[in-house]
Amino acid sequence: MEKWTVRRQFPFKLALQILKIVFVTVQVSLTCFVCREMRITHVDFLGDTVTVMRHKFLKDWDDGRDTVVYPPDSGRYSVYKSADLIENFAFIVSSYYSIREESFASFSYDTTIHHSVTDENNPVIWNHDFDRIPPMKLCINRIASVVVRNSTYEFDISEVYECHSLNLTRVEVDNITSDPMALQDILAKRNVTFKHEDALIISKASILFNLRTIHFSPVSTDQTPECYRIEVKVVFDNSRHTGQVFIDLNAVISYEKLCNGRILKGGVVSAYTFLIGLLDMVVLLLCLASLILCCRALIKAHLLKIKTLDFFDRHLGLKLTLSDQLTFLNIWYVMIVVNDVLIVIGTVCKFTIEFKDFDNDLFTSTGILLGTGALLVYIGLLRYLRFFNQYNILILTIKKSLPNMLRFMVCAIVLYAGFLVAGWVIIGPYSIKFRTLAQSSEALFSLLNGDDMFATFYTINDSNTTIKIFGTIYIYVFVSLFIYVVLSLFIAIIMDAYEVVKDRYQQGLVAERSVLREFVNSLEVPSLNNPEAREQFAQQQLLRLGCSKAGIVCCAESTSVFTLTARICDPYDSQPLTQWNDSSNCQILGVHLPDFRAAWERLCTSILRRTESPFAYGSFTNNASNNIANSNHTFTTASGSGNERSDASAEPHVMPMSSV
């Protein structure tokens, strides 16, 4: 608000951010609520379709297997005899060729309609000929051969992958439906057998086929029918060669523009959809404007940093530390840029979904982009709470403790990785919780946050006593170390930072000391509610950041973190510090030039008092102090008049910088 106080300039950038927060909130509440409902129905449709496929094509599949529980109530779906394998295969074949007659759903085969019948009562009736039904495909993973000679097995373990197109006739399908074992002879005619002697040869057998279906969304704002392609794959897994053949069905469902040669058409665009689209356009424009302004502010801050580094190097003989240089980088602006980009991309993806030109992954991408963007927008609200000391404690505590937390996390992650690899390697073969590296990490992190330890103990197979004892000790040590030691130290680091921040508040919030902050704090903050301050800090008095050579006018209005009280000339490359005079084309950033000599002398005194090294003392005096002590020159004022002289006793005037 200092712009309005001093220059009567409306803070349009602040108003833009407030408008963006309001409209993004409305978008999340209305638009994304509808989008969320669409995603829920879409995900439910995918899950329900896979469930239907399992009930239709897996023999004796019951409802109990549809419920995901941990630990599972039953073992994996499997068969143990050659006859059972053939019967399950025959069940899949019979179900595939009768899918249209026996399903209370709009399933059809993945083919172009050649013969269709249309009437008023039933708009779409698929009347496929049997010969036009796409054949199923059988793919087998096996080794080359196994030969038995004199009770000796000779293996040729070269891997072979072969596929067969099962072009079955209507008579063969009828025979399979009436007698499942007839499939064995039908496959034998095609050089495919599943006998007991093939148990060591065949590793996996996969049955592949495609279907199509139509989906109507129950959401009132999305009644357009959608066509989907279902790629079904049934796998008979015999890779362990133990006599237990696991059977699993996977279905990949993808959106299709054409449904068996027909274009599906829905109703007209509703007024609600039009209003939602208009709201999305407003959010898109606000985010683009915010993105441009924040990028402009970041560029100006970078140019100001270059000017400041050059000034300190040429005339003070000092190098700014990395911490001082990062002061020019406004992390809040960086976060605003990121959330603007996320919301813009997410809104464009949402437009794409509205026009149905999408794939299944676009739903997920849109949700992640808009959700993350909204999260960052609300985190950005904390920026405005910084102006109130009572509400700023969270940000200051995180900022103070973050370096120590990161160092501590490096050590904790190394220790965690050691336990992770040890559990995966040693306990993995004996526990379903440690079967993979990802599952091991999930199990350990759950234990770290209070998961049921007894279940973890119980899942370790007790067939190996050594592993059982090791697993028990392993879990006890991990839980004791990380819960009672690591987490306690982590909390202690945060509490220590909180105490430091609280003490600073009680002492008037003493800022951290550095060369740049010493230079900034060497002048007092002037009163801004007077005509002189308004004239001194008018728009035309701001520092030009040397962009005129490129034909661009860049003014350094401010930095969002600190007040830079530095005398910077443009151009000053050919004029050393001792040659500044009335004819210098000097400009000002937040400092009244007659007060610069007094500020300079206070800075020299402050730095020299804190310098104990004689080398540092000599370096500073040679490069800076002697230039001031031996010079008698005239400073130009901010308004351009050269009649005022520098006076060490004059009261300093400096303007605190507002947010860009």
UniProtKB/TrEMBL annotation:
Pfam families the UniProt entry points to: MCLN_ECD (PF21381), PKD_channel (PF08016)
GO molecular function: NAADP-sensitive calcium-release channel activity
Catalytic activity: Ca(2+)(in) = Ca(2+)(out)
Keywords: Cell membrane, Disulfide bond, Endosome, Ion channel, Ion transport, Membrane, Transmembrane, Transmembrane helix, Transport
Polycystin cation channel PKD1/PKD2 domain boundaries: 335-501
Chief subcellular location: membrane
Keyword Signal listed: no
InterPro entries in alphabetical order: MCLN_ECD, Mucolipin, PKD1_2_channel
Residues of the Mucolipin extracytosolic domain: 43-254
Membrane-protein topology: Multi-pass membrane protein
Region (Disordered): 631-660
Polar residues bias spans: 633-643
Protein name: Uncharacterized protein
Keyword Methyltransferase: no
Recorded GO CC terms: endosome membrane; lysosomal membrane; plasma membrane
Subcellular location: Cell membrane; Endosome membrane
UniProt organism field: Steinernema carpocapsae
Transmembrane segments: 272-299, 331-353, 365-385, 406-427, 473-495
